[in-house]
Amino acid sequence: MSEIGNASDRCRSSSPTSSQSITETVNGSHKFTIQGYSLAKGMGVGKHIASDTFTVGGFQWAIYFYPDGKNPEDNSVYVSVFIALASDGTDVRALFELSLLDQNGKGKHKVHSHFDRSLESGPYTLKYRGSMWGYKRFFRRSLLETSDFLKGDCLKINCTVGVVVSATDSSRLQTINVPQSDIGLQFSMLLESKEGADVVFNVSGQRFQAHKLVLAARSPVFQTKFFGRMEDDSDEILVNDFEPEVFKAMLLFIYSDTFVEGDDLAACSSPSPFTGKETLASKLLAVADKYRLDRLRMMCESYMCKDITIDSVSHILSLADRYHALDLKALCLKFAAENLAAVMRSSGFQYLKENSPSLQSELLMTVAGCEEDCSSGGKSRSVWAQLSDGGDANGRRVRPRLT
């Protein structure tokens, strides 16, 4: 009986299995606008203008534009365009497409595509960080300057990268798809329906009903207020330091963990001594600081850093310092130090100088750090002198007025 059982076990077969190898590309695109093409001419053969880095397939990339060409033998007859691997990587295989965009609406773009030739030569392999693919003779410069690709002294280049990835997919006998979480939607509906609400906020005459338990779970300030030793049992709480639109956006974040986007961020604005208006994002930064909503603060910082310019950096720096937005503050200090001569001529800098001397000191320290990284020391040192010894934005010493 034992021998029969063993024979039966040997004859028993398992269910067949299968697997497949899938090789495909992860694609992404980046548009690089070059404003002031005529001013870039003459910078020298082999010298380039670089785009910001962008991520495709887990690697960072950058577009390099050579207004005088990359190849000395071409004697500046052509402009050159390359796409470079800007992060660490070994033997990264990818397909590329570089397009010079027609700006007169004819749709006749100049396209150099590796995607179309992938069957002939296969993907291009970039060996290490800094490896490039592109064209030394991308376009003859004399033709470019009379073409529809150059408009208002501006060029637009679109780059598409397709990073090759491979994976092995095994068969599955049973598959149950789990839907994405909708807890944010459910809590948003709870806020909208007001069912079970046990607290009312009076914000400039507009009332918002909410739930103490939800607020306390998201904010340590509300947790202390409603459930601390000196808990607040008031049915209605008066809020005087924020506008209704701002407070409503904060409640939406608390309940749904979402950040208002698009036109809503600019819809709520008010006068500012720096730029003429403050956006909803900057006002939400103040709310996030007051109620210790760290994730909301980071979302505001991420949005506001995109608006850093010569005219706005002093304003954003002041807000970042006031509301403990450390990452945003660091970006503002770095930007202001790198563009100090222009920033010093802005009205925002004068306000910063008169009202926030501590920030001016921090800016001095940032400039000092830039000086240490500067091999020549010329330009940054003169800017340091302007700030530290009373010079003006043009490098001239300003004699103090006698009274």
From TrEMBL:
Domain of life of the organism encoding this protein: Eukaryota
PROSITE patterns xrefs: BTB, MATH
Pathway note: Protein modification; protein ubiquitination
Annotated signal peptide: none
SMART domains documented for this protein: BTB (SM00225), MATH (SM00061)
Residues in BTB domain copies: 197-263
Region (Disordered): 1-25, 376-403
BP GO terms, sorted: cellular response to salt stress; protein ubiquitination
Sequence ranges assigned to domain MATH in this UniProt record: 27-161
Role summary: May act as a substrate-specific adapter of an E3 ubiquitin-protein ligase complex (CUL3-RBX1-BTB) which mediates the ubiquitination and subsequent proteasomal degradation of target proteins.
Family from the record: Belongs to the Tdpoz family.
Protein name according to UniProt: BTB/POZ domain containing protein, expressed
Organism expressing this protein natively: Zostera marina
Lineage per the UniProt record: Eukaryota, Viridiplantae, Streptophyta, Embryophyta, Tracheophyta
